[in-house]
Specification:
The chain is of the alpha+beta class. The protein has two domains: about 35 residues; about 180 residues, Intergrase catalytic core (hpI Integrase, Chain A), CATH 1.10.443. About 40% of the residues lie in helices and about 10% in strands. Helix 4 runs antiparallel to helix 6.
């Protein structure tokens, strides 16, 4: 995260110099251009189905956090990142329309009940490129189990994963914090992180994953190959 923020600073200072002609931005841009920051190494600790099930069971039965159990099932079986499942809160000034607004922020990107039709087919747009995917949830037993447990909470189009405490979608930081509490209680080592639900470089799933139909672009294939080479 720190490495990503440094990259954003570079972009901001470059904008300040080229578009606003701010000389102080040029000075800071030159300082950062000479600095070197170590990026995090690629993840090579994929989560197992046993660990995913342990997290689901612990979240539901020990803490009463059914939403975390559902999110874990969706991430693991559907090969989705956290933000593709839980969404993210952004300022109102950011692009994108949303009917979920709290104070000066709105919720975008996450899964909604309306993404699942009567035949249990889920359609959604994922990733930074917003590529479309289609999943037959009948091939995802973990997800079906969690959805059946939460059937009474279904709405026509509201967010699929909602924090039990606030009744709104999770914030990214709070979800990660609560997920780690659950994972430790479930006996999952700290070396396994939530993002390991989707192993680096994986494009299609294995025997423990659902059948996900998606548009395979050369950019995505190249990304997967680069991640595999790094690991």
């Amino acid at each position: 995260m720190a490495h990503s923020l440094i990259s954003r600073l570079r972009v901001l200072f470059r904008f300040g110099f080229t578009m606003l002609e701010d000389q102080e931005c040029l000075r800071l841009l030159n300082v950062l251009s000479e600095a070197r920051f170590r990026s995090s190494s690629p993840r090579n600790l994929p989560m197992t189905a046993q660990q995913a099930n342990a997290i689901r069971t612990t979240a539901r039965e020990w803490f009463g956090w059914d939403s975390i159990a559902l999110a874990q099932a969706l991430q693991f079986e559907l090969l989705l990142g956290q933000k593709d499942v839980t969404g993210e809160w952004v300022p109102l000034s950011e692009p994108g329309a949303s009917d979920v607004v709290v104070d000066e922020e709105k919720w975008l990107r996450g899964l909604r009940w309306s993404d699942i039709d009567d035949d249990l087919i889920l359609r959604h747009y994922v990733g930074s490129s917003r590529r479309p995917i289609e999943v037959d949830l009948r091939t995802a037993p973990m997800v079906i189990e969690e959805l059946e447990a939460m059937a009474s909470l279904r709405t026509s189009s509201g967010p699929l994963v909602v924090c039990e405490i606030t009744a709104y979608p999770w914030s990214t930081a709070e979800f990660r914090r609560k997920w780690r509490i659950v994972a430790r209680k479930a006996g999952v080592p700290d070396t396994v992180q939530n993002r390991d639900s989707l192993p680096a470089g994986m494009i299609v799933g294995g025997p423990d994953r659902a059948r996900v139909s998606q548009r395979m672009t050369m950019k995505r294939i190249d990304y997967g190959l680069r991640m595999l080479r790094r690991t």
